[in-house]
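Hey, can you fold this one?
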Amino acid sequence: MTAIRRDTHLEFSEVDMGGDGDVKVFDIKYPSGTEMRLVNMYDQLRQVEGVRSQGRPARTARWSEIIGRNKILLGGDWNTHSDRWDPECPPKRDEVILTNLMDEYDLTDVTDGEATHMSERNGEISRSLIDFFITKAMMADNLEIATDLATTSDHAIVCAHLRWDEGEEVKVSRKITGWDIDGLKSEEEKENYEKAKKYWEDKSSERPVLTEKSSGEELQKEAEWIQWNFVNHLNRCCKKVKVCARSKRWWNEEIAENRRMLDSLKRARRRGEATQQQVKKQRSNVRRIIRQSKRKMWQDFLSLATQDQVWQALRYTKPGGQQTMKALKSREGVVAESWEDKAELIKEEAFPKPLKGVERKAQEEGGGMWKKITDEDIQLALFDQSVKKAPGLDRLGFKAIRLLWEWDASRIIAIVKITFRLGIHPRVWKEVRGVVIPKPNKPDYGVAKAYRVITLLNCLGKVVEKVAANAIAEECERRQLLHDGQFGCRKRRSAIDAVGRLMKRVEEAWGRGNTVAVLLMDVKGAFPHVAKGNLIKKWKKWGLKPTW
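Sure. Predicted structure:
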């Protein structure tokens, strides 16, 4: 039996190539049109009226037609024994068909050397490797095998992860995601840190900070100058943080060294200076070391886990979410298949257009609030934010902004205050990256509303937003403008307090002999549909004037 995930973006079609139903052949088609073939094999002697015959499915399959593709992966229960793929092989048995197949079509077995079948006979337990994958050498280099999943069967679960993207080999990403700020501030890098600080101070002294008379255009240019120059400065003086295919916590020098040896053998094989068996042996060695490293990291994590990390470990063991996105359908029934059409459809769903007839025009100029903002307010807004928050497109996270505060706090203070005085959010702070993630437990992932967009904002812009949020919240609390039942976004109040108050009222009603009914409502798309003009009118009604 072959099971296929319903939410996959690939197209599957089964092809009859013989094998009496035990050789399942599937053609897989990527959205780009690239194709590969998957063969699910169960090669077992047939039984006729309880007597085992010599007929095997592998003998009746049309292999010349099956292995007609360059990209093909064959796997399953082969029921054959040979020291060619099993170093601890019992006496050879039924291996002729498979070995001839591998030799004729230049196929190689991909195993981790671990036994996949356990049987007991005459009180003795024997282990053998009869469940595995075979493929062509070009694909074997991109195939990762694991057999350590739990199962109650006498056969192991063999998982194959093919690192293949649209039929092309996955390229190692070297995209810079940030800088090693902690490393720059370490004792070992003290001299480099002082040089970097001095260089920035000299560069910054050539450009005056904003003043109370600065214009909106000067504000725009200042935001762009900070972003461009500080990014370039960190590129020069700080070690770059890059993400690649091997950016894993369990990756260590031993794995790296063995991986280099494997790559060297692969190159030698292409030159004819090494055999496929040598490559296979080194590949198995790399996988063994990786499994050991993963196991050790997991055991160390569990042994040293705190009370909170125990629940974190539970989340780690839960199955991962959906990894692919199928074609999406709009509310009008239009199907989006390309990534561009999907992105546009999700954007329309996540960021709806303003309702007709609703005033959304904000005030044209800032008020006097900026005069009430202190340097301490801005510092609190900056250092109260987690350094683990993802940065925006400029990659300047809160560690980098805090470093800028150490070197040039007056520049940050000035741009934040002028932003409030002019009522302008600089354009470079409005450019964001949207990350699409599926909402859990949705019945249909073929519609745009089954996905959520997480926007990664500019961190310096977040400081401005935090200052505004704190000021508005403090003013509302001071004037007692909020309903006593409002718990969200208020200090010293939480969802636990709301539940506690609800339970208290329910118990009081029960004490009076009454029956209690609770109506819970969720306003769909409440935040995106907020009308700025109406919100400002309500603020004016409360006494929060634009000039405040």
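The radius of gyration is 32 Å. Let me know if you want another pass with a different chain boundary.
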